[in-house]
Amino acid sequence: MRLPTFIVVLFTLNFCFSQNYSVSTISKELLDNADAVVRLNSTSILVTARDQMTVSEHRVVTVLNEKGDKHVQAYAFYEKSYKISNILAIVYNAQGEEIKRIKKKDFLDQSAIDGGTLYSDSRVLLLKYTPVQYPYTIEFVNEYSTPNTAFVPNFNFLENYRVSSERSDFSFKVDCGIPFRHKAANFEEYQVELSTEPNGLQCAAQNLKAIENEPLSPMFNEFTPNIKVALESFHLEGVDGAAKTWEELGQWMYHELLVGQDELNQETIAKVKALVRGVWMIPWKK
């Protein structure tokens, strides 16, 4: 199915024109049962080589009450192999007027692992914003590049219970001729438009209502629209790989990444023992 022309144009111009983020422009249907409304959730992925992928994200969320704060999700993970080239957040009041602009230097830079970085150098740039009043809107732009193409980011058109969505766009393009496969779930039920070509795909959804959380509900992504994409030739932390099915991908991970990783040489064992020597005794010291 090909996307209507107007959706393609909107997607292309997504980053070029500011929108009206006044709360008064949100339809009543999207406010019902919602703690937050995603005004825009747009992800564009470009693969230019087996070991080069750029991901651009543009996200706008209107938070209606305190319970909606957790749905802002203005953060970006990074490490040696993930380079952030652009990150910015803008805060708007209920009338859609800009009240604050947060640049990269103003984001909180902290370990992505609770309790420190003893076993990981992964970090996260995190927006820490305390609202003065509700509702408010946060626009978040993030772009990063990585040589790791083994795991293309998944995309969810609805993110969680009690969160509605005005517009969600996903674009994936391969400029280097590598074949890819995709798996779309629950598109028909939510009228998600999908357009595929030999070198990529685009999909879009509009006006998805919030879903109330009920007892014994299934996992959220089992019945809401989402899409997964995978390359047949890829790269991960210095290792090239190839897989045409999800089963082949699992076999590659096991044989190339996991086998032998539980076998440590004596030098490594000695270093670990030196790092943790005496640590286990601390809680019992008086």
TrEMBL record:
InterPro entries: DUF3857. Residues 52-188 form the DUF3857 domain. It comes from the Bacteria. Pfam families: DUF3857. This is DUF3857 domain-containing protein. The lineage of its organism: Bacteria, Pseudomonadati, Bacteroidota, Flavobacteriia, Flavobacteriales.
